[in-house]
Amino acid sequence: MAKDAISVIMERRSVRKYVDKPVPDEDLKTILEAGRQAPSAANRQPWHFVVVRDPERRKQVAEACSNQTWMADAGVIIAGIGKPAVSEKWYPVDVGIAMQNMILAATALGYGTCWIGAFDEQKVAQLLGVPDDCKVVALTPVGAPAEQPAARPRQSLSEFASAERYGDEFA
User: Does any domain span residue 153?
Assistant: First the structure.
């Protein structure tokens, strides 16, 4: 049964423990399609996504991500690569939007994910054969979760939203 978008957004958690189980091609294609459907500045789509399945390469990528070795336990790692030549100013935002779409699609399909922003870009780029004119923006493991983390605390509405002008109370 399909989940509605709001439920998926509310259920998404950062998963750091995975069951050793592959992600089927059909699910990967659905996840990647969700990324492809993301909006981008002037519809430039300044992205490329590398899907890392090979266990040894996943291990190497995880080590290049501040030694977050737990990432290698997921079925795949997806790296979001930006193309500055296509959209110099907006590629980081556009890749981020596409990654979020993929993370939410993976959640809807029952997979765990975790945003990864701590990585050695040069090492990750080398491991994944990323061209010199492209930039690694973010990564996420995708896999069968071995944990269901509880929701983490969030700011109250009054702490992050204003009405009309910054600091004016949002009722």
Answer: no
Which ranges in the chain belong to alpha helices (H)?
5-11, 25-36, 55-64, 91-108, 121-128, 157-160
The CATH number linked to 140 is 3.40.109.10
Assessment of whether the complete model's pTM goes beyond 0.70:
yes
Residue-number span of the structural domain to which 86 is assigned: 5-147
Parallel/antiparallel/unpaired status of strands 112-113 and 76-82: unpaired
How far the first Cα of the chain sits from its last, in Å, is 36
CB 31 within 8 A of CB 102: yes
Does 72 reside within a domain? yes
Q: Are the CB atoms for 142 and 115 separated by under 8 Å?
A: no
Domain count, the chain: 1
Of 10, 34, 64, nearest in space to 142 by CA:
34
pLDDT at 54: 98
